[in-house]
Design a protein that fits this description.
The protein is α+β, with helices and mostly antiparallel strands and about 190 residues long. Helices cover about 20% and strands about 35% of the residues.
Length: about 190
């Protein structure tokens, strides 16, 4: 007798994020970095050397608040311009050094969200193939209330959707589970007192 256990959790192991790519000016196709929330000092990557176009994370983003060259803040419009729709930075003049930026990351449905529950829900829908009706929205809302801290999550390379969710839930002792009717929900584990 063989029993097959079906779980959408297993399917999330095989789903990957991010999925957007860009053409590296040095050749080849690369995964476009992605990020949610408040991202500090993330590396910029060259997208077009002729136009001095650099990427931060997949857009749209809420803000690219500061760009740095070797840790020194540059001046918006004097040294660079930003495109929030694409999450890109264009330098006014070439610069030698390491370019980084502070970014308020990906907007979900046009709204900036800086809490883990929103990111998990978006990852399930956008990358995990889960539809809105399969999300237990009350548990996600409760989770955002119970874990209100602003944070950020930078994804420079491809990661499994389940790994991403576990990375967000592990530090707060949370778990992604399914209800009897098949909806995904988030629960915090109560520790004994």
């Amino acid at each position: 007798v063989e029993i097959e256990i079906l779980s959408r959790h297993l399917d999330l192991e095989n789903r990957r994020m991010p999925t957007a790519t860009y053409t590296d000016p040095n050749g080849g196709t690369r995964i476009h970095p992605f990020g949610y929330g408040n991202l500090k000092n993330i590396p910029l990557f060259l997208k077009n050397g002729a136009t001095l176009l650099y990427g931060t994370v997949t857009g749209p983003v809420q803000a690219i608040s500061t760009v740095y060259n070797n840790g020194v803040a540059l001046t918006l419009t004097t040294d660079y311009t930003v495109n929030l729709t694409t999450g890109d930075v264009t330098l006014v003049n070439p610069l030698a050094g390491t370019l980084t930026a502070d970014v308020l990351g990906y907007t979900i449905g046009g709204t900036y969200r800086n809490q883990r529950g929103y990111w998990i829900e978006d990852a399930l829908k956008s990358f995990g193939g889960i539809v809105a009706g399969d999300i237990h929205s009350t548990s996600f809302s409760d989770f955002n209330t119970e874990v209100p801290e602003e944070s950020g999550y930078y994804i420079p390379n491809e990661i499994g959707v389940r790994d991403f969710i576990n990375d967000l839930l592990f530090p707060v002792i949370g778990a992604l589970t399914e209800t009897r009717d098949g909806q995904f929900r988030i629960d915090l584990v109560d520790l004994p007192t």
